[in-house]
């Protein structure tokens, strides 16, 4: 808020997915926070579409998949290869894969179970069933 004090009122309009409606003027006046070390744009520790997943993170996920009994995907279309390859690895290792997603996914033809519904509509019941 320090860089963009006029945005304070917009905070109340943020949707659950993080989206917000901004006027053209608000977009043009927006000042991106800068990294105090390199002075480049400050970015959160997430992978944006088009960015590469750090190799250490890829290796960590590969090890976790190998150590798991199965893979359960929640709310992803698996369109991006970095997520789809997790499923490919699991299937190559003969692990079961289940997907819970409202629409089609890239892996629908290779998964063992596909539940087509909103995550919020089933997760509470599923958790209660699996954890009791």
Automatic annotation (TrEMBL):
GO cellular component, one term: mitochondrial matrix
InterPro entries: DHS-like_NAD/FAD-binding_dom, NAD-dep_sirtuin_deacylases, Sirtuin, Sirtuin_cat_small_dom_sf, Ssirtuin_cat_dom
UniProt keywords, alphabetically: NAD, Transferase
Record has Transferase as a keyword: yes
Keyword NAD: yes
Domain Deacetylase sirtuin-type: 1-132
SUPFAM superfamilies: DHS-like NAD/FAD-binding domain
One Pfam match: SIR2
One term of GO molecular function: histone deacetylase activity, NAD-dependent
PROSITE patterns assigned to the protein according to its UniProt record, in alphabetical order: SIRTUIN
Name recorded for this polypeptide: Chromatin regulatory protein sir2
Species in which this protein is naturally found: Pararge aegeria (speckled wood butterfly)
Lineage: Eukaryota, Metazoa, Ecdysozoa, Arthropoda, Hexapoda
């Amino acid at each position: 808020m320090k860089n963009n004090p006029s945005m304070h009122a917009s905070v109340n309009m943020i949707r659950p997915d993080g989206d917000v409606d901004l006027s053209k003027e608000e977009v043009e006046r927006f000042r991106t926070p800068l990294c105090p070390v390199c002075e480049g744009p400050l970015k959160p520790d997430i992978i944006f579409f088009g960015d590469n997943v750090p190799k250490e993170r890829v290796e960590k996920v590969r090890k976790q998949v190998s150590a798991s009994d199965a893979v359960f995907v929640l709310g992803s279309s698996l369109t991006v290869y970095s997520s789809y390859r997790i499923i490919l690895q699991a299937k190559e290792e003969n692990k079961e894969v289940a997907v819970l997603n409202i629409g089609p996914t890239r892996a629908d033809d290779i998964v063992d179970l596909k539940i087509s519904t909103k995550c919020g509509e089933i997760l509470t019941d599923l958790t209660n069933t699996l954890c009791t």
